Amino acid sequence: MAHIVILGAGYGGLGIARKLAKLAPEGTIIDLIDRNKKHVESIQLYRVAAGTAQPDDISFDIQAVIPESVHFIQANVKKVDYENKKVEFTDHADISYDYVVLALGFRSENFGMEGANEYSYKLQDIPTAQKIYQVINSNMRDYKQSQDPNDLNIAVCGAGFTGIELLGELIDTAKVLKAKYNVPEINITSIEMAPQILPMFDSQLAQYAVNFLKKNGIKILTGAKIKKIEQNAVVYTKGDSDEEQRVYANSIIWTVGVSGSDVIKDSGFDVKRNRITVTDYLNIQDHPEIYVVGDDSASIDPKSGRPLPTTGQLALAQARVAAVNIVAALNNAPQKKFNYNSAGTVASLGPHHGIAEMTKPHIKLTGHVASLAKNSSFEVVLYECAGIKGLKKPN
């Protein structure tokens, strides 16, 4: 009787649990383990940070959406002892496995930036998202008494997907808080090291996003290399110049990058940014009983030779193939190579606006239609990892 342990109940973990429940031989033990009782829709965290959504709006009970044949355990993973095929926890007895899936998700990465931990707020989970909105709200509220112009300034470090979607959401948040506290104009600045934002999109779509954000009062600094974070400022340089410049703000939000779970590094795996380079079959070369999906994996794109960008769409695609391959291993059958074909890329620019580039057929969308495409693609992700119950958001 085989024992499969899935670590993490994010998109990849839930997806593989549901798939294994359908495919695994009768009698297979499937444990799904997460430190939280609720699954958090991590690609929606920016909405909580902007105050446009509550935690319950972007989360649901894990136990309520998994198949009966999957056993859920709430526990905090300490490390994977891959030599002895067991998982160690901080709050639970060790669990041995025949196969294990690493799907532990991401953490915010500050790259050792001076002052980032002390003076900026990372967007990583629900508590950090709530903290960001609390800081923004309290600064706006306090302005009339403090008369500190930096209370009215918000700086967002990093203009990747998370940063851009947060900026779009903050447009409405700024209007609401300006009216609520009767304060002067609220200033929002994006600081990005790359020469352009959203390079994964067609250049026309990326420019559309830039124009939309600027039209709605967002200042975008590209080619701005952040040097350090001070108590009320982001210090950066431009181009080849060593001259330090500053964006002053009392609300500094860090969305520069993410890495895989620290559990991956703490377990002694060979990693880069806490991610494991997997084989074409999504397992580890020297330990084929270990499969890795989502933010903890580095699946190499054969076209570019670089790891594929980690998204919910990718995690679910990996989950489908990893589940098939685990069952094939159980049956001593050939495994399937993972070939990723993206269905498209969508980014929101606030609740009713966005950009989208779909692959089949190849179409480009902007504005409200793109926002609808974003919502539709998200519902597809939710349905695959949680079924109808996930769409209904059980508590």
From TrEMBL:
Cofactor: FAD
The keyword Amino-acid biosynthesis appears for this protein: no
Keywords for the protein's UniProt record, in alphabetical order: FAD, Flavoprotein, Oxidoreductase
Alphabetized GO MF terms: NAD(P)H dehydrogenase (quinone) activity
Domain FAD/NAD(P)-binding: 3-297
Gene3D superfamilies: 3.50.50.100
Keyword Transmembrane: no
An example Gene Ontology biological process: aerobic electron transport chain
A family per Pfam: Pyr_redox_2
Similarity section: Belongs to the NADH dehydrogenase family.
Protein name (Swiss-Prot/TrEMBL): NADH dehydrogenase FAD-containing subunit
Organism of derivation: Bombilactobacillus mellis
